[in-house]
Amino acid sequence: MRSFTLLSLLVLALNGVEPVRGHASIWHPSMYGFNVTDKTFPYDNRPVAPLTNYTFDQWWFHGHLNYPPNPGDYFELPAGQVATAEIACNKGATTWFNSSEGGDIRQGNSPCPNSPTSAYHTTGFSDLKGCALAIAYESNVTKIQPEDFTVFTINQTCVWYRFTDFAVPARMPPCPEGGCHCAWFWIHSADSGGEQNYMTGFKCNVTGSTSNVPLAKPQVPRRCGADPDFGKPEASPGNCTYGAKQPFYWFQAERNNMFEGTYAPPFYLDLYNFKDGAQDDIFIDSYADIPPPSPNSTVVPVLQQPQGTKTIASSSSAPSAASSSLPAPSSQPTNQVPFGTAPGRCSACVKRRSQGSSNLQRRSLPFRWLSHSNVNAKRKFSLWHPF
Ligand SMILES: *[C@@H]1O[C@H](CO)[C@@H](O)[C@H](O)[C@H]1NC(C)=O
Ligand SMILES: *[C@@H]1O[C@H](CO)[C@@H](O)[C@H](O)[C@H]1NC(C)=O
Ligand SMILES: *[C@@H]1O[C@H](CO)[C@@H](O)[C@H](O)[C@H]1NC(C)=O
Ligand SMILES: *[C@@H]1O[C@H](CO)[C@@H](O)[C@H](O)[C@H]1NC(C)=O
Ligand SMILES: *[C@@H]1O[C@H](CO)[C@@H](O)[C@H](O)[C@H]1NC(C)=O
Ligand SMILES: *[C@@H]1O[C@H](CO)[C@@H](O)[C@H](O)[C@H]1NC(C)=O
Ligand SMILES: *[C@@H]1O[C@H](CO)[C@@H](O)[C@H](O)[C@H]1NC(C)=O
Ligand SMILES: *[C@@H]1O[C@H](CO)[C@@H](O)[C@H](O)[C@H]1NC(C)=O
Question: Is residue 98's pLDDT more than 60?
């Protein structure tokens, strides 16, 4: 009983009092750094650790190029269908918990079990800033440069669900022999932490291709959507980058392509013409001509290829209307928890949380809690910020 009280207090303290520094990554055996822990490098370089002000070698593929996946492990991208990825603050919260530091801490669809939403840097569902998957059609990872990655799918409601769907464009051509390389990119809301970039590289392969048309050379994205926080109520569609776009490389010590300030981070949203879902206009034949973008331009390019799916065709061909707003409430999937019931907020979830902590208690009591110092016990409860 006494232990229970102490444990509860500890959990409360970690969730409420300590500055929360939980972070996130995509997790899959095809990733670089799958088994990297906070001990592998002289600094905390777990896949979930944020990348800020790093040298190129430190941030590129998270510095994990020497920690490749096992041969044959690829993340499959079915052309024209959905690929479901797992995003979490700790490997223990995913399907691959059995090779994690802390064991099975899975909790349904929660990316960060037993944590407030600040653990994944958001104040709530309306404060989500999206994440991206990018691809390079190159099997030799050392040949890939940042300018080679093209964002091919966006999920504007991440990080929120552990199981996050990414729509793969129908016209993705096949990968070369040996497969492709992909990477997950995320920059979170400015009101939920510092200037943090996330990049997790992985091996991927397109399956079910029906097209051989290659991707266009990706360009740097431009801030062209409505930006009411910065006195810009209307979008400027003529200022957008259209077609294939690079991911954001921001706030590193080297090789940035974005130079926005601390409080105006670039986001994988309409703000940078990253529409939710499959990026169907990234191919060399997607546009006959792309006029040079500029703030006062009113000219926008016209899609010339019939695009993947009906929904996407309509949103891509009407950029002026569609690019002006953040995801509207109607974009909330109907089969998901409603707005305002973040895992850390609703009462049912509070109940789940306390059950979660007693599970932790049960698991940890026999060894850690009784035989180790408080510091070790604390580590046990703080899987995603072990310091
Ligand atoms: C980046 O790191 C350098 C060297 O460690 C330091 O001098 C500089 O203040 C840092 N910049 C930011 C924005 O953190
Ligand atoms: C990661 O660790 C697990 C468990 O030790 C092992 O089975 C797997 O092969 C490792 N994966 C890589 C890529 O090192
Ligand atoms: C760990 O779990 C994964 C996913 O379920 C499975 O493929 C793998 O064989 C398991 N590894 C061990 C060592 O049990
Ligand atoms: C990969 O690319 C590097 C750099 O271009 C080259 O030195 C190396 O031989 C290549 N490896 C393979 C297996 O082709
Ligand atoms: C984003 O992921 C969520 C959770 O998996 C899913 O419901 C939603 O449809 C995805 N959005 C897009 C545009 O694929
Ligand atoms: C990638 O997928 C294609 C289509 O299914 C397959 O033919 C190819 O062998 C796969 N490549 C790798 C490296 O697994
Ligand atoms: C146009 O895009 C540039 C580059 O991202 C950005 O700095 C500028 O604020 C944008 N201007 C307008 C009016 O959208
Ligand atoms: C763009 O429009 C703004 C506001 O209408 C104006 O102040 C500015 O001079 C124009 N810039 C160019 C390059 O035409």
Answer: yes
Amino acid at 157: T
Helices vs. strands in the chain: H and E counts, helices first: 7, 9
Single-letter residue type at 228: P
Beta bridge partners of 184: 133, 200
How many A from CA of 239 to the centre of ligand 7?
Answer: 6
Dihedral of CA 175/94/151/59: which sign?
Answer: negative
Mean pLDDT of the chain: 79
| Residue 230 near residue 203, CB atoms below 8 Å | no
Q: Atom 1, ligand 3: which residue's CA is nearest?
A: 98
* Beta carbon of 205 within 6 Å of any ligand 6 atom: yes
Question: Can you state the angle between helices 374-381 and 2-12, rounded to 10 degrees?
Answer: 60
- CB atoms near residue 240 (< 10 Å): 27
Tracing tokens 């991206």 back to the chain, one arrives at: 132
Spatial distance between the Cα atoms of 188 and 131, rounded to a whole number of angstroms: 9
The count of other CB atoms within 10 Å of the CB of residue 73 is 15
* Residue nearest atom 12 in ligand 4 by C-alpha distance: 140
* Among candidate residues 206, 236, 204, 205, the one with its CA nearest the CA of residue 223: 236
At 28 the pLDDT is 98
pLDDT at 74 over 70: yes
pLDDT in tens, 268-325: 999 999 999 999 999 999 999 999 999 999 999 999 976 544 333 333 333 333 333 3
Ligand 5 pocket check: which of 161, 163, 274 to mutate, most ligand atoms within 8 Å of Cβ? Answer: 161
CA of 202 to the centre of ligand 4 (A): 18
The reply to whether ligand 2 has any atom less than 6 angstroms from the CB of 34 is yes
Mutate to test the pocket of ligand 2, among 70, 96, 200 (most ligand atoms within 8 A of CB): 70
